[in-house]
Amino acid sequence: MSCLDCSCILRTRVESIRPEKQSESNIHQYLADEPDLLWIPPSPGGREITFCSSNVSHYELQVEIGRGFNNLTSVYLARHMPTGSQVAVRITDLERCSEDHLKALQNEVVLSHFFQHPNVMTLWTVFTAGSLLWVISPFMAYSSASHLLKNYFPQGMSEALIRNILFGAVRGLNYMHQNGFIHRNIKASHILISGDGLVSLSGLNNLYSLVNSGQRSKIVYDFPQFNTSVLPWLSPELLRQDLYGYNVKSDIYSVGITACELANGHVPFQDMPCTQMLLQKLKGSSYCSWDINTFPHGESRMKNSRSCIDSGIGESMTHTMTSERLHVPFSKTFSPAFHNLVELCLQQDPEKRPSASSLLSHTFFRQVKEQTKSSLLSLLPPPAQYNKSQFLALPSAEVGTEPGCISQNERVTEWEF
């Protein structure tokens, strides 16, 4: 049985799951036991991986910076005391997880070690302490694109900023598609940005491998139990759940919805009840970015949210920003290239959508290829500084402390994995 089997994790006091301990033969042996997983060799030019220790006392938790995984995971800014470096620490109490949650965690942990690409989120170290799963990864100072929308761009981002963020995300997505994986969870809160301007794609717990028993499938019929909050980003064919199935082009539709989300500060369909949203998607209704050239005359640009759907930019946004947006003149315009990109991604017929590789060659991304990471930083405010005056105690499942329980005065930002 694999050391990554979640039932084993629960019986392990402290167990490091560091890939440096695995030889290539061991990896292949593990994958032979897990036929749905595929080992991917590191890609040239990938992000350098730093291995941190697997001793919980080596991490000084400073502030909770987000939640994820259906609120089962707390994400902390922490200091790795042996090196003094800042890291992100995700802590999940495995005893609170269902079987489906455990399988998703296992899938993410295994695959994240094998993905080696600068635009795919890296996990540096994974270990358990009692029933708590600790995941150590790079600290992304700008958090997610969704966090930027909530705190700095409530009416949507500029086209230049959207271009830089989406280009990095699509590069990571293209790498996954080329290696036979469908992401199935593309949205702004799963696009993370580091302090030096590196864009990384996260949210890997719903990944699906097209490779099974050495054969690569063209169509997928696997329909996981998605949280309702992710439904606005999912493609019509994935939601339809019929005999036609879906493929990697389903992710391209999500890229189009995410482009609208970044442009609007608001995800399409968020103001609709779930059933109405599903009907609109299946009918093929067109949802473009809002600007003075395309927005229907006389129609409200923002309605009070009344649906069961989380927009992905935080629940507080509905109450704090809606009334302000209704009275703010909207004069932003987007280029024909941007509109064409969105239109291509949101095609009802998956075969008419471009591949991720073709999308990178789209006219909209032409300028970003000549830029550097500093070009993205020039479009952003300085990253938020967290109050580290009072450090947090280490979570302890044994004494009944839930990971993520902090003072109400602490500020929790939108950092979702």
UniProtKB/TrEMBL annotation:
Alphabetic keyword roster: ATP-binding, Cell cycle, Cytoplasm, Nucleotide-binding, Nucleus
Subcellular location: Cytoplasm; Nucleus
Domain of life: Eukaryota
GO molecular function terms noted in the UniProt entry: ATP binding; protein kinase activity; protein serine/threonine kinase activator activity
SUPFAM superfamilies xrefs: Protein kinase-like (PK-like)
GO biological process: cell morphogenesis; JNK cascade; negative regulation of extrinsic apoptotic signaling pathway in absence of ligand; protein export from nucleus
Main location as per UniProt: cytoplasm
Domain called Protein kinase: residue spans: 59-365
Entry GO terms, CC: aggresome; cytosol; nucleus; serine/threonine protein kinase complex
Pfam families: Pkinase (PF00069)
Transmembrane segments: none
Family: Belongs to the protein kinase superfamily. STE Ser/Thr protein kinase family. STE20 subfamily.
Subunit structure: Component of a trimeric complex composed of STK11/LKB1, STRAD (STRADA or STRADB) and CAB39/MO25 (CAB39/MO25alpha or CAB39L/MO25beta): the complex tethers STK11/LKB1 in the cytoplasm and stimulates its catalytic activity. Interacts with BIRC4/XIAP. These two proteins are likely to coexist in a complex with TAK1, TRAF6, TAB1 and TAB2.
Job description of the protein: Pseudokinase which, in complex with CAB39/MO25 (CAB39/MO25alpha or CAB39L/MO25beta), binds to and activates STK11/LKB1. Adopts a closed conformation typical of active protein kinases and binds STK11/LKB1 as a pseudosubstrate, promoting conformational change of STK11/LKB1 in an active conformation.
Name of the protein in question: STE20-related kinase adapter protein beta
Originating species: Crocodylus porosus (Saltwater crocodile)
